[in-house]
Design goal:
With about 80 residues, the protein is mainly α. The chain is built from two helices and no strands. The protein has one domain.
Amino acid sequence: MISLFLNLGTGEILTILFVILLLFGSKGLPNIARTLGKGINEFKRASGSIQKDIMAGTGEVSNQVKREIEEVKKHLEE
């Protein structure tokens, strides 16, 4: 998926990983991966929270529109 998104080949990805290994060493990689994982989880949690807030806000508007439609239908039937 990463290679499709960034349009990178296998060799380029391996080169990038090798450079990262040289820069941070084998002891630093677990810390980087852990920090990256925590960041991704926090982003998912925040986006989920925002999505719930939006759905809650639009839910009431949606219910109000449905009530108005029902009222218009009743008036048209009369």
